Amino acid sequence: MEVLILLIFVSLVMVTLAVGFFAWGLRERVYDHSDRLTLLPLEDDSPARVLGSKRTPSKSDM
Questions:
Q1: CA angle 37, 42, 46 (to 5 degrees)
Q2: CA-CA distance, 45 to 47, in Å (whole number)?
Q3: Which residues of 17-53 are buried (b: 16+ CB within 10 A; e: fewer)?
Q4: 3-state secondary structure the chain
Q5: Does the pLDDT value for residue 41 go beyond 80?
Q6: Phi and psi dihedrals of 44, rounded to 5?
Q7: Which residues contact residue 31 at a Cβ distance below 8 angstroms, ignoring those fewer than 6 apart?
Q8: C-alpha gyration radius of the chain
Q9: Per-domain residue ranges for the chain?
Q10: Which of 5, 44, 51, 52 is 20 to 30 A removed from 19 (C-alpha atoms)?
């Protein structure tokens, strides 16, 4: 029976913390840019630059 009381207490503390963090997030406007972040994977990537020399391969390289 003592374990049940402990579990209820720990559960209430966790729920209180979760509600508190959610309220803090709403107050600090953390979730305002979530719509933009969901579309981020759909944006085109910038073209990759190829690094290296511009030398053409010669017959001795093959």
A1: 105
A2: 6
A3: eeeeeeeeeeeeeeeeeeeeeeeeeeeeeeeeeeeee
A4: CHHHHHHHHHHHHHHHHHHHHHHHHHHCCCCCCHHHHHHHHHCCCCCCCCCCCCCCCCHHHC
A5: no
A6: -70, 145
A7: 25
A8: 28
A9: 1-31
A10: 5
Predicted confidence (pLDDT) at residue 40 exceeds the cutoff of 70: yes
- Say which amino acid occupies 60: S
pLDDT higher than threshold 90 for residue 44: no
Which amino acid, one-letter code, is at 7? Answer: L
Token duo for residue 10: 């720990």
Query: What would the two tokens of residue 47 be?
Result: 């073209």
Work out the pLDDT band at 37, boundaries 50, 70, 90.
confident
